[in-house]
Amino acid sequence: xxxxxxxxxxxxxxxxxxxxxxxxxxxxxxxxxxxxxxxxxxxxxxxxxxxxxxxxxxxxxxxxxxxxxxxxxxxxxxxxxxxxxxxxxxxxxxxxxxxxxxxxxxxxxxxxxxxxxxxxxxxxxxxxxxxxxxxxxxxxxxxxxxxxxxxxxxxxxxxxxxxxxxxxxxxxxxxxxxxxxxxxxxxxxxxxxxxxxxxxxxxxxxxxxxxxxxxxxxxxxxxxxxxxxxxxxxxxxxxxxxxxxxxxxxxxxxxxxxxxxxxxxxxxxxxxxxxxxxxxxxxxxxxxxxxxxxxxxxxxxxxxxxxxxxxxxxxxxxxxxxxxxxxxxxxxxxxxxxxxxxxxxxxxxxxxxxxxxxxxxxxxxxxxxxxxxxxxxxxxxxxxxxxxxxxxxxx
Length: 395
Prior knowledge:
alpha/beta; Rossmann fold; Dehydroquinate synthase-like, alpha domain; 2 domains; 6-stranded parallel beta sheet; 3-stranded mixed beta sheet; 15 helices; about 10% strand
């Protein structure tokens, strides 16, 4: 699985720590921005997470000009157009996205419209369409999982055509990602678990899929170590700000890793299951991860065995025979999932979700085979292979 040629790219400035929010005014002024718009959702505002950001900006002499707090879970072309119109009306000059994947993706799309012009975001869909930098853009993640703050992609729904529009460009990357543990302290246990397992899957697939490289490996292994060590701590004590910060940093590291090394069948299955059964993405990642690793086992035995060091620690790694390290790594992931079931009943099988029927498995299989991420899976995959993985994941 060695790479004779690879590219690695992540120009996002990361501002992390327990006083990271207070640095936002400095970051804005450094780009001559003085009229920021905040883009977020009702849940973030309802949880009081806007307050420390607003306070930090005011203390730094920066006034937030307008706030859009109605981003839906699956954002659409119409929402993007509406926010862009509000941005122009308020004469804003920059964007601060606060939230999870949907507010961040929405903010990326809004930045395209307010920078390039027009009202139809579909005109900019695809890869390589954008040719120049966009307006100053900052991201404050409120979940430790998606890694959207360091990815050069966004997905927006075209509800009229019932399709998802993909946007890919290095110009979508924010000028800075602000990682502050205050933003994840109020995450409910099940959301904490799902988003952390999303990041764990990003890192694990980044380390075992076809486009892995030495630089993505370094980020992926560091992320796995932080998640496996700190996720149980946070589940035991949700107010542990040190462990929360570690999880948030791990999510960013995993995002950097998979942005450069791609992901595989876990994501193919997750995208398909999410679209057909409307399950949260992080739940799908947690659910499918061990079953896909077992399917890929002989193709990834060496890197997966190496990953045991970061997943279970040096003592387990040293006392496990080399020939059994890959299987032991999968067992460690299963053990972590069992712990999460005990903490918050995070489903481990499709059956445990209560939202998937057996007659949907065939549609999931065909959709997964058509998903672009399947190209980077370390083992070639047929429709029957996917059916078998789904049967095992059923329960």
